[in-house]
Amino acid sequence: MPTKLFALALSLALLTWSAPARAELKAIQLAPPDFNAQGLTVIQALKNRKSDRVFAERELSLQHLSEVIWAAGGINRPETPGGSPGRTSPTARNQQAIDIFALTKDGVYKYDPSTHELRPVTEGDHRAAAGTQDFVAGAPLNLFYVADLAKFRGSDEEKKRVAALDVGHFSENVYLYCASVGLNNIVRINFAPEALAPLFKTDENHLILMGHTVGYPPAE
Ligand SMILES: Cc1cc2nc3c(=O)[nH]c(=O)nc-3n(C[C@H](O)[C@H](O)[C@H](O)COP(=O)(O)O)c2cc1C
Questions:
Q1: How many angstroms does the Cα of residue 128 sit away from the middle of ligand 1?
Q2: Domain count across the chain
Q3: Is the pTM of this model over 0.70?
């Protein structure tokens, strides 16, 4: 019996030792926007703007990933009249209290606009938790716009109203960027915030307001 136990312990130890180390989720340094890229004019992008519910599974290029997130809430000028850097999306009272989370096949990240970087939050493919519609889990990118209510001024009711207004600008920027470069995308409220909060490591002071699925159109 002790021999059997020893053999079992040894094989377990060997199994653990020989298992490949889990790759740690790393930060993604996003690429700067390409301001010289050929693209549609804003008026042409408005003509093409639409919601899509089919996506190729192919990963986004680093440039598209970087620009779509920058379009949502990146820094576009070093200073506003209040002193803080300016953002691509306006926010009421320039409170800049909307965070962007990104779910990819590798993990969950939080966008840091100051370094234009996706910082790791939770490892693993959690895209199935990103929405209740079938296309969500297969798309390469699901963004979420999350209000950090502790940073908003006013009553609870006003904080929620203003946060909801703010995220509309984030999503419309993404719609226009996607229309301009030929990406498929859709904003969504069909998701369970309670399933996402633990993955985002957010608490009751955060409101997960809107999802935004982005990817390439399926191959013809
Ligand atoms: C706030 C908001 C939430 C939405 N949520 C969903 C959603 O959860 N699922 C979905 O399939 N479409 C969703 N949509 C997309 C709308 O259905 C779509 O915008 C509408 O049908 C008009 O189509 P268009 O965007 O192509 O013009 C949402 C749109 C908005 C503005």
A1: 19
A2: 1
A3: yes
